Amino acid sequence: MSEQTSTRENFRRATVPDDNGFFGAYGGQFLPPQLEGPFAEITKAYHEIENDAAFINELRYIRTHFQGRPTPVYHARTLSLENGGAQIYLKREDLNHTGAHKLNHCMGEGLLAKYMGKKKLIAETGAGQHGVALATAAAHFGLECEIHMGEVDIAKQAPNVSRMQLLGATVVPVRHGLRTLKEAVDSAFEAYLADFENSIYCIGSVVGPHPFPMMVRDFQKVVGIEAREQFHEMTGNLPDVVEACVGGGSNAIGIFSAFLDDPVELIGVEPLGRGTAVGDNAATMTYGMPGVIHGFKCYLLQDEEGQPSPVYSCASGLDYPGVGPEHSHLKDTGRVRYVTASDEECRDAFFALSRKEGIIPALESAHAVAHALVTAREMGTGTVLVNLSGRGDKDMDYVIENWGIGQDS
Ligand SMILES: *Cc1c(COP(=O)(O)O)cnc(C)c1O
User: Does one domain contain both 126 and 248?
Assistant: First the structure.
């Protein structure tokens, strides 16, 4: 181990991943041979532009004038008071353009495509959130956009399909297998393979083959950089604890990355769904074992043959059987603690934040709030900063149908 340099230095030069895309034992590039070339091209282009002044300035301009950054940090006084414990603060990614953190990396990926001279963005989407964010980026940059989506998801997510189409994207229905996310991934990969000269494949979280876990993390770092500075300005201190929900892990790594070298406890919250049985949750780090999915190694919910297990959460953005390789590494090193919140705890936090603070959170983000309430009570005093990754407008139909609105908390 080399001697620790200053925080700032570490911050600029991340020590992971290595040149092959490994975060400790996790990550890498498990690709069909035909895709090795195209992914090497993306890696090379990213390393060229990541320190390029023109690229950085354009991304900064976009963040300020298109996305509306910086998003604020908000002291949830009433919620904290009623909860009776440590003070809870929220990093308001729900106020980012399109209502969630996902646009942070989609704009980065779109800008990279533009610098590489690509004409088209290709991706899959499950619930449609990544598809909408990417279609937004494509519209902004004047790029074509092709979103692969299972027929079952298309039927379930009609408003997001309309949004993508309104933004100019082509939604490609995937009609084989279970007609959901897994088939959509295969379909998007095939489309990219057939047209990698003109297009770029854009992954929706800190997952997939190298360089995506690194690139998406770097684009999401803005969340942590802003939050650390804002929190310090508000309180004169750093938070005692930082919490975020973990699906693939992009919003969590975005905020954690700024605090890795600080004496701050970091907690990732996974969905416990309906319970501990296989197929009832998506708590990858809690119940998974190392394995390979979608071209990279990570903690994985899997059967004896290494096939991904079925997963479930009321928050569709969290139900992925894998997780980012950097999170897998951070679990093994012990730097981040991974815990769970159930559908019920998510529901209670969803209503509490809506009623007490006038903020309707995404169901994904409500998982982080739910566990932060537990942490804050246990601590008694001190501060907890939560990454509020998105707003709950998209979840209103689900909430009303399943939980009603008359709940009094
Ligand atoms: C997609 C999504 C998530 C989960 O993705 P991560 O990569 O784990 O951040 C969390 N919150 C919101 C609002 C989302 O849309």
Answer: no
Tell me the pLDDT tens digit for each residue of 214-243: 999 999 999 999 999 999 999 999 999 999
Looking at the fold, whether 236 and 372 belong to one and the same domain comes out as yes
* Ligand 1 geometric centre to CA of 118 (Å): 26
Q: State pTM to two decimals.
A: 0.95
38 and 109 both lie in a single domain: yes
Which residue numbers are catalytic? 102, 124, 389
Give distance in angstroms: CA of 179 to centre of ligand 1. 22
Domain count, the chain: 2
- pLDDT, one tens digit per residue, over 13-25 is 457 999 999 999 9
Contacts 24+ apart (CB under 8 A), 278-281: 278/309, 278/310, 279/309, 279/310, 279/311, 279/312, 280/312, 281/311, 281/312, 281/313, 281/340
pLDDT over 80 at 358, yes or no: yes
Domain harbouring 316, CATH code: 3.40.50.1100
Q: Is 205 in the pocket of ligand 1 (CB under 6 A)?
A: yes
ω before 325 within 30° of 0 (cis)? no
Which one of 161, 189, 212 terminates a domain? Answer: 212
Summarised one tens digit per residue, pLDDT across range 321-356 is 999 999 999 999 999 999 999 999 999 999 999 999
Domain that holds residue 306: 68-100+221-403
d(CA 103, CA 338): 25
CA of 350 to the centre of ligand 1 (A): 15
The per-residue pLDDT for 177 is 86
Q: Tell me if 6 is assigned to some domain.
A: no
Nearest CA, atom 2, ligand 1: 317
